[in-house]
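Lab notebook, bench 4. Continuing the backlog of folding jobs that were queued last week. Each job is logged with the same field layout so the records can be merged later without manual cleanup. Today's entry covers Cytosol aminopeptidase, a 461-residue chain. Filled in by technician R.K.

JOB TYPE: sequence-to-structure
TARGET: Cytosol aminopeptidase
LENGTH: 461
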Amino acid sequence: MSLTFATDASDAIPLFLVEASALEGWMEDQPPRVVRWLDAIGFKAALGSAVVVPNAEGQPELAVAGFGDTQGRARGRFPLAAAAAKLPKGTYKIASDLPAGDLKTEVLGWLLTGYSFDRYRSQSPAKARLICPEGLDAKAIETIATSEALTRDLINTPAADMGPEALEAAVRDLAKDHEAKVDVISGDDLLAQNLPMIHAVGRAAEQAPRLIDLRWGNAGPSVTLVGKGVCFDTGGLNLKPGASMGLMKKDMGGAATVLGLARMIMALGMRVRLRVLIPAVENSVSGNSFRPGDILSSRKGLTVEINNTDAEGRLVLADALTLADEENPDVLISMATLTGAARVAVGADLAPYYSDDPKIVSALENAASAVSDPVWRMPFWTPYESQIEPGIADLDNAPKGGFAGSITAALFLRRFVDNPSYTHFDIYGWHPGVAPARTKGGVGMGARALLEALPEILDLT
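JOB STATUS: finished
OUTPUT FIELD FOLLOWS
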């Protein structure tokens, strides 16, 4: 797959980006033969449409991509990517003006049309290549695209090839590329190092549970990312039905997303001290599986009653978050494919997040809009705290009732963190259909928004 810009502009085809309302005026400035061609095929500059106009010799002279209208663009993302997927083979150079921010996002979308998951079957490469417009940082945009591809590849890989061992190997490969340090605590050493809930969730699997700890950078503010790495989730003894188990290779989507974000941060040389913590486990069924009714002790000292072994993600995150919080980082963020309730609330396209830090909220909302990586703030609704208190233990991992499941999960995690900057993302990590710049399958959510927001959050600008 090609997630880079073309570099040879000698035969580049000019590409005009035209809104439907501006089409008539744009055509007034074109030669009559161009107008006749566009009229003959009925080109209306509809959103995502694209056409190549030949010259007298039958070779491409120019191309036009339709940008529709404002209302249409509000209903989707990456209109240039939609057009790029329909353009024939060739190298193109944008010949129209767009606001700089919009242009950066649009050309990133173009690059992402080149993504395909080809580990198990060869895929057709993208036909249309793009010259990076002047004034944009080509390497930075390519870095974001290839980091998103890392996230997608990790999620798309089935659990047979992406268990805790393989996820650890992926982290080590990433660390090697960027001169980062990795430490791993695995198996019974988790108990010795006081990470009991990570051990409890993963002990039934053939591959040992582990906590993966990556560090990079020695100057600047501290940023800690914690990603849920449940490489497959059977539901444990509260076994999922088959239909619900089908996508559980993506239950390490939080880990995949923080690794993509970490790659962006490191490759772009952001002046931060970065730490990434990934509790990597499989929630399997065996004679030593943890059970409904068990009461687990946590690193923080809080006890947790297990009322559903399928609510395991919050357990492994709790120990990892406690460890992260002990260093009191300037920013602490967790990302996890945590609850189906979040999907019911906002669907597959939005990344719901929880934060009580007004600076983070403001920066994140502005950044998400600027880079077309939508997020939606959810409430740490303190009145629901009683729902996660079972009485027999400090906390309940799966409160009864079915209401506000994403909120109660977030409140559960917050009990293990004292840091006021704590921000939690309850992402889906999967795109259920084909859309501009996104194939069906694994997808990063919230990472680009966080990358854009971090300089403002950390006063790096």
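OBSERVATION: Residues 184 and 212 are 5 Å apart (CA to CA).
SIGNED: R.K.
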